[in-house]
Structures are given as C-alpha cells and as structure tokens.
Amino acid sequence: MDKQIKGGANTPGSGLRRRDFLAGSAAVAGAAATGAFTLPKRVYAASKAEITFASAKFFAKDSMNEVIDKYNSSQSAVHVTYTELPPPSSSTEVHQQLVQMLASKSGSPDVFTQDIVWIAEFAEAGWALPLAQYFSADDMKAYFPGIVQGCTWNGALTAHPWFVDSGMLFYRKDILDKIGAKVPETWDDLVAAAMKGMGGDTKFGMLWQGKQAEVLVCDLVSFVGSNGGSILAPDGKTVKIADPEAIAAVQLMYDTINKHKITPADVLSWDEEPSRRPFVAGQSVFLRNWSYTWATAQDKSTSQVVDKVGVAPLPHFAGKSSAACLGGYQFGVNAASKEKDAAIDFLKYLSTPETQLHFAVTQGLAPTRQEVFDSADLGKANPFMQSLKSVFVGALPRPVTPQYPQVSLVLQSQVSKALSSGDIEGSLKAAKDQIDQILAG
Amino acid sequence: MDAIARFWGVGRAAALMLLPAMAALATVSVYPVIEGLWLSFRNTSLIFRTDKFIGLGNYIALMGNDKFWNAWRNTIEFTVLSTALETALGLGMALVLYEAFAGRGVVRAAMLIPWAIPTVVTSKMFGWLFDGQNGIVNYLLRAAGVIQDNINWYGSTDHALLTIVIADVWKTTPFMALLLLAGLQTIPHSLAEASTIDGANAWQRFWMIRLPLLLPTLLIAAMFRTLDAFRIFDLVYVLTGGGPADSTEVLSTLTYKTMFSTLQFGVGSAMSTAMFATEIVIAIGFAVFIGRRLPMGG
Hints:
The complex is a heterodimer. By secondary structure, chain A is α/β, with parallel strands linked by helices.
C-alpha cells in the first residue's frame, strides 16, 4: 500500500494516469453493460438446462466458483448457478436455509450439500432424490464403505459422497518427547501423559468441546464409541445411551475436569474455536478437534506450536478400540428438481477423481474415493491428509434416524446436565427415556 | 340528508385510502399471527409429512414439558434481573447527565455507543471479555485481588445466566438512561428551585419532587424494556447456545430450536403462542398499574 501511494505522488504523470484510469474504468463498465445485454440468460434457456447448486461455504468462495466455471465451460448442455450458504460452523443456519428451500418444492436448488447427519431426515421428508437408478452398487464401491452407508437411508441411496472428516487427537510432540511418553493409545495413557506434561505455560492437559451444541454429541460419540458403546443400536430403535459402557464413558468426560483436572471446566461452554485457540497458543498437551486444526497449527502468523503438533486417532478404553465421530458434507439432489438429468450430470462431475483431488488440494476436503485418497498426487500435495486414513476409516456415524435433530437436542441437554452436575447415571437415564419417547413417536 | 351523504362519501374515500395500509398490515402482521395460532393447534412435522388438527394437544403437552417451564423460568429471571438493574443504573446515569458539566454533550453522545453496536457483535465481545481462562475480566479481578481462581463465567450453571444479564445491562442501560433523561427534562426547573428555597436537600429534591414526576416515564420505559427483555435471543444464542445444562435456555432459543432444528412447527408455534400470552399478561399488568397510579386521562 505505502509503496503504491508514494509512487503515485512522485510520478510526474500521475494526473494523466488517473485520467487514463478513469477512461479505462468507464470502458470496462461499458463493456460489462453491453456484455450483460448481448448475453442474456434466456439464450441459455433455449439450449441449456439451468440448474442451481447450493453449498455451505468452505474456505474461499472462489475455489467453488472455479470448479463450477470449469464445469460450465466444459460442456454446452448445462449451466450451473452457485448459491452460497453460511459456513459449516453455523450448521444450524445452513440447515434452516436448506429446509426452507427444499420444503418450498420449487425445485431450487437442484443440487445441494448437506451435513451427513441430515441425510436420513431429508430422505424421510421426501426432499432428497433417491439415486440408485443413476449410480449402481458397483459405482459406489469406489468410495469408502462407511461413507456410502452414511449416504443410505432405509436401504436407499439418497445422498452422494463428497468429503469425509472426523474428530481426532492432536498432541504436542515436543512435550511428549520431554516427558518420555508415547502417543497415548488408551485414555489411561492420555490422562497420565496429560498430568505429567502440564505445568508452566501449559495450563491444560486435554481440551475437548462441551458446549451445549451439536459438537457435544460429536465428542460424546467418540468417548462412548471408544468404550464399545453407542447411542442407538444399529436397528435405530434401541437406545443404548444409559448402558454401562456409555455411563463409564461420560464419567470419564466428567473426570477429566473434576478428578484428573486435566481439562478446565470452561470446556462446558466451548465449541471448536475456543478450544482450538489455547492449543495453538501452546497452552495444552492434547486437543480433540476436526482436521482443520492441522493447518491452523502450522500457520506461523498465529500459532505458537508450528512443527510441534502430531495427530493420532483418539484413545480408547483398555481392550476396546478407538472411535471418532464421522463428519463431512455430502451431495444431494432435490427431489423436486425440474432438471434431474442435468443435476445428475453436474453431480457426476463434482465426484470425478480429478474434482475430488482438486477439492482435497485446494480446500483441504478429504476425498471419499479410495483411489484418490491413496493416490501419489495427494501424497505429494497433502501428506498429512493421507496419514489420517486410519482415523477416517474408524469413524463412527452419529445416530442414524430421521428424528436425529430431536435426539441430538435431548443429548445436548442431558449430557450437559451430566457434566455440570456429576449425576451421570440419572442424566443419561433421563436421556434414554426421552429418546425412547421420541422414537416411539 | 345532505350531511349524511357527504359524510358517507368522505368515509368511503377514507376507507379506500386506508385500504392499502390495512392490506399491508394484514399480510405482514395479522396473517402470521393467525397462521401461528392455527399451527399451534396442529401436529405439523415437515420431516414426517404429518399435518393434522389436534386441538389443544400441543398445549397440554407443553404443560408437562419440563424444558419449556425451565426456559420460561429462565426468561422471567433474566427479564426481572436485567430490567431492574437497567432501570436503577439508567436512572443514576440520567441524573448525572442532567446536571451541567464540561463535556456533557460528548458524554451524552458517547453513551449511546453500546446500544448502537449490533447485539451479535456485543455477544462476541463479551465472549472474549468473560472467557474463563484468558479473558480480561478474570485477569483484572485476579490482579485486583478480588478472586483467587478464575471464574468460569459461561461454563458454570451458577454464573452463565448472570453473565448474560451483565452483557445485556452493559448494552441497554444507556438506552434507559436516555429515555429517563428526556423525562427529567420535562420537569419544570421552577419546582426544584422552589423546593431549594424551602430548604430541601438534594435527596429530598430527588425523592419528593423529581421521582414522583418522573414516574410515568419510568414505568413506561420499564414496560418497554421488560417486553423487549422477554424476547432475549441473540446474546444467549451466540454465547452459550442455552447451556450449560439448560441453565441459560430461554423461550426464544427453545422455540427456535424446536421449529428450525427439529421442524416440529406445531409444538414450536404453541411455545411462541405461550410466549405471546405471557407478554400480554405482562403488558396488561403494567398498563393496569400505570393507569391506577397515574390517572393520565384520555
């Protein structure tokens, strides 16, 4: 900025330049105006199928526009217009806007992106087009089986895989080296290492998210799953949240705060960002968070822990196996779309190995196609992502039911009560009763 | 005859001219209220594509719904606490600003800044200030020796609602102060002067002269504030999301979650109707009180 201003003032011809600039911008404006008149959208309508694509905002908008522009210019049958929704961190608003658009049955947006937990709900409401007639079971074998299962409701494929994310354990390599501890595999290891590693500026041992919000359910799934428990049985009807495995897991969440004192009670009001900031400021040994934390921890301008962070699957209870909460956004096609074939064509383009690689490299969205995940190209561009395969493969879905939003609200409230009051069994039993009632519906 | 015909003509013309305004009001105000009422008598869920009339079913369910009553209690608690504090502090500020001192104009203008900041921004700001670990409020309290350990402002069921009250008081007290300042300025100077000559001290001047004359303004300002505070949404939504353990869940946030997360429009509408009913009771209470205390005529 400074340099430009100086240059302008010192250059004798700066006045003339400004006139040139003004003339130039007038010409540009004129061109834009004529452009708008000579290229009306009606011209497309005669020969092209017009469809709209609505997606939550991931990182740079330009990156998504780039993909759409490329598609628009690659063929002459379909023209896509992009509608940007709020970012995934405001998922309630994304959900609300999608519901308003889909429930109006106007057919717009034709293609949309949805959080994996809404798939059953949108399918049950009849808003998502069943995709089995467009994508065969063989086609879907190219994707991770867990994610294909997540895109299926009542035996029908109603969503299409886009990208995968999951909760994982971030740890401070330098601290573990200093205290001579290995990367923890069980929660006992983690508690021991956290207690040993705390001290000085490292005020905290382990940070997670306990805010009464969706993220609490994600954390809950990881803790309960790592003890072999679950919220609902696979039948989607039997509630298992008050089983001994789940009670022990929530007890551990409570104990990190009140017994082991490796976690500040503040996590009860923290979601992702408030818990991430102390970690990248060097205040904590461990952190449970999503994969985006990695890039922010390597950013020299804001992070105190560049090159000091490692990633591993979340720990598990002795004798059980690790579990992470499966996340990520997936594609859907509007059942009321007036241009279904065009929508499917665009969806296929979004899912080619090339496009998936593009999303992975430019936006950090992990591919759901197995071959892209394992490809040498991805290994070169983002070796960190490839190292996460074991985490993603072990990721568990949140309860799959069209009543998920109601179930989630009960869990948020009751687990928050358990963690605040310490009455874990009572709170979880109350949660079970309420969820039973919802499912009996 | 002539007069009646003329009046009828004028009346018709007036009615015609009022029509656009009436139509606009009906579409944006009356229709949504009636639609909301109508929905509250139905079991409407977008997810399961159900939509049937169930009479008072939603209201009966609401009666036994602990979450609803918990939110109702929190809302009342928030409303009473914040309105009382804002009225008391606002009155103090108004009395100070009423006196002449150097730079009074600047102070009066600057005072409105907290009120002019969008609530979502205020919420984010208070999120930082009251952060339990790295927030400046805890830092200052610790430095001043008031507390030994950090206070967990938002993460503890003991303080979360109180912290939201503090944020609201910071934001809205200036508004109250301005309303009351306007009221103070309508009180004739001569009354205060006369009482001074009669030997009244400052306290007596305030208690016997200004406060009684300010009471109409005070009550009306408090009524506006109460009705507004009852609808609290953004501070809670941004700062705590209703937690921890539902300790900050208020009627607006619960209704929003029920309607737009779970898409149960029937139950959600019953909740908002119940909220509406409570507000009407509050408004009538104030109106009766104001009417009794101050026969204002008209």
